[in-house]
Design brief:
The protein has 174 residues and is an alpha+beta fold. Helix content is 37%, strand content 26%. The protein has a 6-stranded antiparallel sheet with strand order 3-2-1-6-5-4, sandwiched between helices. Strands 7-8 form a two-stranded antiparallel sheet. Helix 1 runs antiparallel to helix 2, helix 1 runs parallel beside helix 4 and helix 2 runs antiparallel to helix 4. The longest helix is centred in the C-terminal third of the chain and has 24 residues.
Length: 174
């Protein structure tokens, strides 16, 4: 296990401890963005966009102020949300339709948050360095998103009214 993987294992332990027993999605997103922003080198933004009203809306984040609403399919975040696929962009300036929320950002990774086949949102990280993100980042950030997705499941099972974002029910059948 290399240093990058060891660092991610530590972040996963911290995220697991902070989210364990907590079913509030916004609170968990806030703590996850803080842990990742403070735990990874060379990051200038880490945060979430939540799918509602047929678009992505800014959620908890760490970094400079950001774009509030992103249409589905637009920019790196909208592309990840629409395709439900991880987007790793080595140079955001070469990404067709990139939405420049922070001129200092040069590379980006976006992990879609999918529950029961539906997009719930995205986890977005930016870096001022080109080619900052790689397959290891994608693998471990996906694990962090999976931890969050499991808390969303816990939320829908622990309330009488299932969590609904933009008429997408996150209720599961048991």
């Amino acid at each position: 296990m290399n240093t990058q993987q060891q660092n991610y294992e530590l972040l996963i332990s911290q995220v697991t401890a902070l989210t364990q027993g907590e079913s509030d999605m916004i609170a968990n997103m806030a703590n996850i963005s803080a842990v990742v922003f403070n735990g990874l080198a060379d990051i200038n933004w880490a945060g979430f966009y939540i799918y509602k009203q047929s678009q992505l809306v800014l959620g908890p984040f760490q970094g400079s102020p950001a774009c509030i609403r992103i249409p589905m399919g637009r920019g790196v975040c909208g592309s990840a949300a629409e395709t439900q696929e991880i987007q790793v962009v080595n140079n955001v300036h070469d990404f067709a339709g990139h939405i420049a929320c922070d001129a200092a950002s040069n590379s980006e990774i976006v992990i879609p948050i999918v529950k029961n086949g539906q997009t719930v949102g995205v986890f977005d990280l930016d870096s001022p360095s080109f080619s900052r993100f790689d397959g290891c980042d994608a693998e471990y950030l996906s694990k962090i998103v999976d931890i969050l997705a499991n808390t969303i499941l816990a939320d829908s099972q622990s309330t009488e009214t299932p969590l609904v974002l933009d008429n997408i029910s996150l209720e599961t059948t048991v």
